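Exercise 3.2. Students should predict the tertiary structure of the chain below and write it as structure tokens, then compare their answer with the key that follows.

Predict this chain's 3D structure.
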Amino acid sequence: MPTFDFLQLDVFASRLLEGNPLAVVVGADALDGAAMQRIARWTNLSETTFLLRPSQPGADYRVRIFTPRQELPFAGHPSVGSAYAAIDAGGVPARPSLLQECAAGLLPVAVEGDGATRTIHVQAPAARIAPADAALREALGGALSCALPAAAVHCIDNGPLWIVCDLGRAPAVRTLAPDLAAIATLCMARGAVGVSVFGAQEGGDAAMAVRAFCPADGIPEDPVTGSANAAIGALLHQTGALAKYGRCYVASQGREVGRDGRVEVRVDQAGGAVTIGGRCVVGVRGTFTLD
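Answer key:
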């Protein structure tokens, strides 16, 4: 029976139980996609990743990313956590720059600090951004129980497809009580992984409050979401709205589900490339044996 090293860690947090959990199966080259999907359904976390030998020149490692329902070409907290796990497991050196291979391509990874203070930043794929049509905006407004201006809603594809909504200010984000069944129906119809909302936060250690809902994938509310935060950063760059937050800002996510995640978002001024990053904490180390 094949046995693999296994880690479960919290991503975007400096203390255990505050971030977004990620399961990582190390040295998973013997597993096919069907087995990976079964394992992801079994862990029942928002994502499970599998570390593999790279297949492209220059890559330091390869990662495949699965929700309980499907494989994703890119996701933020799995990419940050997988880079941390690859270093922790000794598969790659802890040098300042790494290159991650995933279904979305080769993505630069920056490693800062060491040990408990190590921070991982991953560059997200370039985002394709389109304003939502009237039918989508109306359906989303119904699911969120609020009227949405035309400029508030966009469809953003940076690997997964997100429906992103600017609610203006953090209190509107924090108090939102969405119709999750309606969001699931909407996401299935539009091929989106979920709906993400954001708003400016005054005071504290974060500039923005973010929430992400992925009920179609069995995740009513994701605790801390890297790809959604990267999508928001790309949207702010394209619309010229970054001045409110700055090109390097921190987003707060997860409070509504008992977490306290922090995502560091950096937007390159010249080309608009977005990196998302944060700390990780390992909670479980062991082996996974597949019968």
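Discussion points: DSSP finds six helices and 17 strands in the chain. The radius of gyration is 18 Å.
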